[in-house]
C-alpha cells in the first residue's frame, strides 16, 4: 500500500502559508532527513518538534559500522546497513553542499579487539560470519593491533581491522540537516505533536501542544523513542517502540604524543565483561566513550555507576585514558523495536507513514531512510533492501511479528524527536560540562 503521488510544488511555496503536503512529527535526524528529502522533491513540508535538531543524535557516537555491528540473525538488517553505508560519501557531499556545513565524516576505519581468550574466540567467529557474508575484514594479532594503535593495552589478544567502517559527527549531522531543511523551505512548528488527526479513516494532520492544528496531505511519524506515544493513532497501527537508555562520555585527547603518535587514530571497539565498548576519536580532539544499554523507561539520569563502568572498561582497553580530562557525560534514549530494526514506510492507516525504531543504527541509516521515505511519500516502490522493514510486520497476526512484544513504556510523555537528553549535573536539557 502506497499513498497517492503528490504533485511537485513550486519553489518557495512551502513557506506561503498553504497547508503542507507532508507533516513530519519529530525533528531528530530521522525526521529531518525525511523532511529534507521531501522538500527537495518539491513537496510542501512541515516539521513539528519543540527543539528540532535535538534527540538521540546529541548523544550518539556516530559510528558507521555496518561490518563490525553485524550480529548473528541480523543478516537482513545487514543489507540495509550496507546500503546506507555505501550511500554515505555521496550523502555527506550532498548535505554539505545543501547546508554549507561540514559533517565530520571520516574514513578512518575501525579496529575491534579482544582482551581475553573468550573474546578472541568470539571475534574469530564474527570474522568467519563476516567472510561468509561477503564482507571485508582482516584478522590481526595482538602485536599487529598495537602497531596500528600503540596505546592499546599489552593484553590485547587480537583484533579485526575493518577499513570500510567509518564515522560521522552526529551533532554536526543534525545541524547540517536542520540548515538544509531551512534552506529548502521546510516550515518548523516548534511545538510537540500531541494527537494525530484522522478524518474518514485517513490521517490528515496533527494537533500541537501550543493549541494549533496542522493539516497535511500525509503525516510521517518520526519521533524516535516517543513514536509509540502519539494519541489518536489506532492501537494496531501504533509503532511498538520503546526507549533504551545509553550513557556516553566525552573526553579531551592530547594534541600529540612523542613522535607525533595520535592518542587513537581510528574507532576502537571491544567486548569487556560481556558488554560492548567503543572509543571514537574526533578530528577536533574529542574522544567519545560509550555506551551503556539500559531498559529503564524514560530515565536519562547520568549515574556514577554508569560513568565508572565506562571508564573502568575503557582503561582496560587503553590504560592512558584515565589521564584525559572528562568534558561531558550524558544519557540519551535509543528508539528500540521488538526486533531492534527500523520501521519504515506506509502504515495500515492511509496517510500515515512511520520512520522510527532505528535503535543503535539511526546515524548509520540516515541516508537510506531518506531514500526510503522519499520513495514512500511519492507513491513509488520501496528500495529492495528496505522491504523487510515495513511497519506491517508487527501487525496482529503478521508472520514477522516477534514472539515477545516490546516492554510497555512506564509513562506517556509528549512525543517529539526524542526525550531531551539531560546532562550530568543540570536539569535543563542543555549541554553542560561535568
From TrEMBL:
It holds the Pfam family DAO. InterPro entries: FAD-dep_OxRdtase, FAD/NAD-bd_sf, Gly_oxidase_ThiO. Residues 414-434 have a biased composition (Low complexity). GO terms for biological process: thiamine biosynthetic process; thiamine diphosphate biosynthetic process. One of its GO terms (molecular function) is flavin adenine dinucleotide binding. Pathway: Cofactor biosynthesis; thiamine diphosphate biosynthesis. It comes from the Bacteria. It catalyses: glycine + O2 + H2O = glyoxylate + H2O2 + NH4(+). It is an enzyme of class 1 (oxidoreductase). Residues 383-434 are annotated as: Disordered. Residues 404-413 have a biased composition (Pro residues). Keywords: Oxidoreductase, Thiamine biosynthesis. The keyword Oxidoreductase applies. Its EC number is 1.4.3.19. One of its GO terms (cellular component) is cytoplasm. This is glycine oxidase. It comes from Streptomyces chrestomyceticus JCM 4735.
Amino acid at each position: 500500500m502506497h499513498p497517492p503521488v503528490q504533485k511537485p510544488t513550486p519553489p518557495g511555496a512551502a513557506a506561503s502559508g498553504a497547508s503542507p503536503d507532508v507533516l513530519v512529527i519529530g525533528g531528530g535526524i530521522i525526521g529531518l532527513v525525511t523532511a529534507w528529502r521531501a522538500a527537495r522533491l518539491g513537496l510542501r513540508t512541515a516539521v513539528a518538534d519543540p527543539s528540532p535538531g535535538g534527540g538521540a543524535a546529541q548523544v550518539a557516537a556516530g559510528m558507521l559500522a555496518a561490518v563490525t555491528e553485524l550480529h548473528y540473525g541480523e543478516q537482513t538488517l545487514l543489507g540495509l546497513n550496507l546500503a546506507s553505508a555505501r550511500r554515505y560519501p555521496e550523502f555527506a557531499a550532498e548535505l554539505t553542499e545543501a547546508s554549507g556545513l561540514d559533517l565530520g565524516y571520516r574514513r578512518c576505519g575501525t579496529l575491534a579487539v579482544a582482551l581475553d581468550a573468550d573474546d578472541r574466540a568470539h571475534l574469530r567467529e564474527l570474522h568467519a560470519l563476516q567472510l561468509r557474508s561477503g564482507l571485508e575484514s582482516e584478522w590481526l594479532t595482538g602485536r599487529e593491533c598495537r602497531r596500528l594503535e600503540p596505546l592499546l593495552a599489552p593484553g590485547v589478544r587480537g583484533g579485526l581491522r575493518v577499513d570500510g567502517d567509518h564515522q560521522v559527527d552526529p551533532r554536526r549531522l543534525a545541524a547540517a540537516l536542520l540548515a538544509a531543511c531551512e534552506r529548502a523551505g521546510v516550515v518548523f512548528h516548534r511545538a510537540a505533536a500531541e494527537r494525530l488527526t484522522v478524518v474518514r479513516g485517513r490521517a490528515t494532520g496533527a494537533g500541537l501542544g501550543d493549541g494549533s492544528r496542522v493539516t497535511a496531505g500525509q503525516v510521517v511519524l518520526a519521533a524516535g523513542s516517543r513514536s509509540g506515544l502519539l494519541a489518536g493513532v489506532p492501537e494496531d497501527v501504533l509503532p511498538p517502540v520503546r526507549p533504551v537508555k545509553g550513557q556516553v562520555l566525552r573526553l579531551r585527547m592530547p594534541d600529540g604524543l612523542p613522535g607525533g603518535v595520535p592518542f587513537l587514530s581510528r574507532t576502537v571497539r571491544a567486548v569487556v565483561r560481556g558488554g560492548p565498548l567503543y572509543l571514537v576519536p574526533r578530528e577536533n580532539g574529542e574522544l567519545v566513550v560509550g555506551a551503556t544499554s539500559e531498559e529503564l523507561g524514560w530515565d536519562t539520569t547520568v549515574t556514577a555507576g554508569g560513568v565508572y563502568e565506562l571508564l573502568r572498561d575503557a582503561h582496560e582497553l587503553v590504560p592512558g585514558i584515565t589521564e584525559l580530562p572528562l568534558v561531558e557525560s550524558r544519557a540519551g534514549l535509543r528508539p528500540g523495536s521488538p526486533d531492534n530494526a527500523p520501521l519504515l514506510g506506509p502504515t495500515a492507516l492511509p496517510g500515515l507513514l512511520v520512520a522510527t525504531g532505528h535503535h543503535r543504527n539511526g546515524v548509520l541509516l540516515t541516508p537510506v531512510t531518506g531514500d526510503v521515505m522519499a520513495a514512500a511519500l511519492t507513491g513509488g516502490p520501496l528500495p529492495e533492501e528496505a522491504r523487510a522493514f515495513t511497519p506491517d510486520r508487527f501487525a496482529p497476526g503478521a508472520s514477522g511479528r516477534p514472539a515477545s512484544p516490546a516492554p510497555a513504556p512506564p509513562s506517556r510523555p509528549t512525543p517529539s524527536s526524542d526525550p531531551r537528553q539531560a546532562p550530568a549535573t543540570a536539569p535543563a536539557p542543555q549541554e553542560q560540562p561535568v
